[in-house]
Amino acid sequence: MEVKVLSSKLVKPAYNAGAAPATEYIPLSIFDRVTFRMQMAIIYAFASPAPSTAAIEKGLAAVLSQYRAFAGQLGVNPDDGTPSFILNDRGARLVEASVDADMVDMAPAKPTPDLLKLHPDLEGELEEVVLLQLTRFRCGSLAVGFTSNHVVADGHATSNFLVAWGRATRGLPIGPPPVHHHKDLFKPRSSPRVEHDHLNREYYKPSPNAVVGHHGDGADNIVIHKAHFTKDFIAGLRASASKGPGRPFSRFETILAHLWRTMTRARDLSAEETSKIRLSVDGRHRLGKPAEYFGNMVLWAFPRATVGDLLNRPLKHAAQVIHDEVARVDGAYFQSFVDFATSGAAEKEGLAPSAVCKDAMCPDVEVDSWLTFPFYELDFGTGSPSYFMPSYFPTEGMLFLTPSYVGDGSVDAFVPVFEHNLQAFKECCYSAE
Fold it and tell me: Which residues are catalytic?
C-alpha cells in the first residue's frame, strides 16, 4: 500500500473565551507510573461519504480545550522535579495522507505491517501525546489512525475522549469534563496496610544484567490471526462453561478461557508448565472514583494454571480460574496497592514496574479487552465507523478482544501467534472443547 503524506501540523485547543489558560503541571499518579510505556494505536474506517478534514480538525481543537492532557506533553515540574503531564497546549499532531486506490482493495482485514502506514511516523522520541493520520482513499473512504501515549490515559479514558471528539465535531455538548489527577486523590490509609504481594505483581526486582522489552527482531516469525466468534458460537461456549451449579460465566470470561486453552494447545507446551494471564482491571468503580477520571486507574489480575489442568479439565475450570482471580482484585486490593505504592518501598528496594512490552509472552497470555468501550460511538457527523481494530502490534500472546463491526453481539479476537503455531491454533479455535 503506497501512502502519500500531504501535510503535517499541530492542532491546538480552541477556547471559547479566546485566551488560553496558564500552563499547568499534573503529577503522574501511582497508576500512571506502573502502566505500560507504549503508544496505544487504533484504526478506524469510515465509508464514503466520509467526514471532511476541516470538520474533524475543528472538532479536535474544540475537544482538546477540555482534554488538555492530550494536547500537552510529558515532562517534569521544574519546581520539584516531579514527573508530570504538562498542560502547555502544544497540540496534537495531525497528518493528512492519501492512497490512490480503493479502501476495499487495500485495507487489510487484520493487523499487518501495512497498517503502520496509516499512522504518523512513530519511531524515535515523540514530542506529542496524541498523533493522528487521516488517510483518504480514491473511493472516498477515510482511515483514521489514532495513537496516544498510554502513560497519559488508559483505554477507559481514551474512549471517553474519542466519543467527546465526535460530539464536538457534530456541534454537540462534549459531555462531562474529564477529572484529572491531583496529589491528594490516591491517599494511603491513616494506618497503611499492605495486604497483597504487590512486589511480585505490579512490580518486580530486576536483575542487573536482565534485558527486558522489545529486542527489535521478534516480529519476523509472528503473525496476527483474526478469529471471529459468532453470537451463536459464544452462546454455545457459555453454555458449556456454565454447566452445573453456580452463576453463568460472562461473555468475556468464557471467550478468554477458550482462547487461553486454545493458545496453550497450539503452543504444544509440557503439562507441568504454568501459564498465566495478565488481565486489566479498572479501578474507578472499585475505588469510588468518577467514570470521567482521565488518566490510568488500572491494575491487573493474574489467573494461572498448569498446562495439564487447562487442557485436561473442562472449559469451566479455566473460566472459574479467571473469574476468581478478577474477583480478588477488588476495592481492598486497590487500596492495598495505594498503601504500598505511596510508601516509598518500591523506590527503596529498587523495584521496577512489571508492565513491560515484550516480543513474546509464551507460555503466558496478555489480554486487552475493548468489549465494553464505546469505540464504535465515534461519529464525526456521517455515522459510526464501518470498521475498527487495533493497529499492528506483533507481540506473541497479546490478545485484543473487540466487538465485531457486524454489531450483532459477535466478537473479533486479534491473536498474535508464532507462525509455526498458526495452523494448530486455527484447527482448534472453533472447537467448543
Answer: 150, 379
